[in-house]
Amino acid sequence: MRDITFRGVGESPEPGGEAEALLDARARVSAWGPGARKMLGYTAREILGHRADELLHDSADAADMLHRWDEGVRRGSLVLRRRSGESLEAEVWARSLTSVNGERQWLVQAVGAEVFRTHEFGRALLKGLFTDSPFNIDLFDRELRFVAQNVTERRAGVFRGTEYSGHTMREMAPPGLLDIDALEARQRRVLETGEALIGTEVVGHPVPGSPREYVWSESILPLRNTSGTVVALAHVVSDVTQRARSRERLVLANEAATRIGTTLDLWCTARELAEVAVPHFADICHVDLLDSVFPGREPAGDRRQRPPLLRRAACSGAAEDLGPGGAGPMVGDHDARATAPGSPFLDALAKGESILLADEQLRTCTAAVLPRRSPDGGPEVHSWLLVPMLARDLALGTAVFMRSRSPRRFEPDDVLLAEQIVTRAAVCVDNASRYHRERTTARTLRRSLLPQRLPSPSAARTASRYLPASEHTGLGGDWFDVIPLSGARVALVVGDVVGHDLQSAVTMGRLRSAVRTLADLDLSPEELLIHLDDQMNRFLDERGDEGSLVTGATCLYAVYDPVSRHCHLARAGHPPPAVVSADGGVDFVDLPGGPPLGLGGVVFEEREITLSDGDLLVLYTDGLLESREQDLDTGLSRMRDTLSRTPVSATPQEVCDTLIRELLLPGRHDDVAVLVARMSGLAPDCHVTWEIEAQEKMVGQARDLTAQQMALWGLEEESFTTELIVSELVTNAIRHGGEPITLRLIWDHNLICEVSDGSSTSPHVRRAQDTDEGGRGLYLITQLTQNWGTRYSERGKTIWAEQPLPS
Question: What pairs with residue 722 in β-bridges?
């Protein structure tokens, strides 16, 4: 039958019919209700006795409809016909009746399709709220009595079922669940004002006696009758414990980042750590440092023969007055009990892992390492967290966090937060310790001045040899360095300070430090030597009468770019470098010598050479060639001959060893430093450069080009971060720089992004205010990259950023 669709009995209860009629067994209308008259327009006199077919649109068959009802399909969608002839979509259902005469009759109810759909939506809404909702919903009347609740699997173990109906929360809530006075005050406020309270955070314990603390987000909604009077309250509650805990941890992490490490005083740093932790994270905090960390003390030589000593560096919280008669040492005293056999401190220091103890585990722990109860009679410590303090894979000490007054136990996320805070403090403590030790120790000067292990940039495979003039003291003025620069470039430097004593070593160290600092500014070799010459003059002026002890220094500085394969060199009174080509040819770079450093007011000249893959660049000091029996020219000739006889396949280290073995003369009285680098350029498919127009719309194009290139390199996982970096740098160049603007990507050990523009304005990182619309670009770069910086050229500047790549 067309326009009729029936469903099975009981699929959905009826909303209550708008119209009712009674049909006999032959489908004739035997009764006609007022609702039916209103819906279809027929009066009872007009329709009684007529067949139901006349009420169906398009001459549908009422007999067939009765047949379906007999088979049990008693609900369906029909198209009815009004008295005016208009059609009406309706939902119709029928119930079988038997008259007093025993005749079969049908009670037919109908409702308009639009009304029925509204009813269905309402049912779905109620089902979603009271059955499928992730929220707890409770209803209270105006006397604040519990009326009903929804059904959800996420409910805590309280207020289940109907036994609370008719009672207030004050009468039925378990002790300690929440603040009942505050709850009733909120309820009365909504009743009085009629305004909902949304998102109130409430702290409580759903399980009586449980130490676990919950945070709920509570919304109280007024429910009104048809006249608008508030007759009840609906409480919508959700568990936001994890969100609240995450917010607390984030606040604490930010506070630690700003408050820890404000000075290079390790006592102050330890105290800052303890004060940050209490009371927001722990009730008690102890910071103990290894005795070898403090200024004026040497690291223990053999940890296997004697246990390390811990010294109390800071204490904060309820037990900070521990001392005489207490459970721990005073600040500044040793705590030998902490590293006694069986103590968890030794295990944490050895494994570098945190230890978390609570309740019964804590009661069985060695009593000597923690207070059972605060000296002021406070509650017993129930949660104890030990975090080793590590920096550069070295153990510096420990931090202990305890909770007694707070009922919450430490959770795994708390352990991670504590480790993050302690790691920051460890870096600051390590910096302070190294600063004091290097300032007060002269014996370790040379080891700290010369590189013990050269970096391994892809542009140059390097090796070095250093021989001091005196093996007894090991002090001298010769030095060398390999400095990775931005854009996958590398700087090679060799220098020589006159003298072989402590004064020369100090000057050498200061020069090497100055070169590294100037190299970070990405100066050209000639500019760097000019600044280094000025620095040398300052060194001599600072010594006053002692300036005659050091009369000068020489230096050779070279920068190799693996993208262009160009090498820029300049020297200040230093012997020229040698180049060994891949085919075995040997030549010395035609490079103006320039005066030694320290004369002042001089200009150095720079040269550019091109190096092929596999070429060797040999840098050295004059101690390798000159002696009382041999001048420099003779030494250069011998070096050319030695290098020409060295196999092309020899490694840089083998070349160093060969030069030392064959060129050094007996009875030398000078330091010797040799630095050999085998150059290697970057393949053309490992770098790409684009010109960018100074238009805002080009930022999106730059991101697209970056994404395409990252896909070509197989670096899709890093693409999002790289696109974000490119977007920030290109935007800054367009807004604050000038044309020409270029974008270059370099795939090396790291992924390097460079944006160049025609402006020399120096960028700087600033902390943007909450209301600022911009100013966060460079700060974002610092968070996303391993390193970043700026270098300047005659045409403007280049801002570069390096991202670490997986191994």
Answer: none
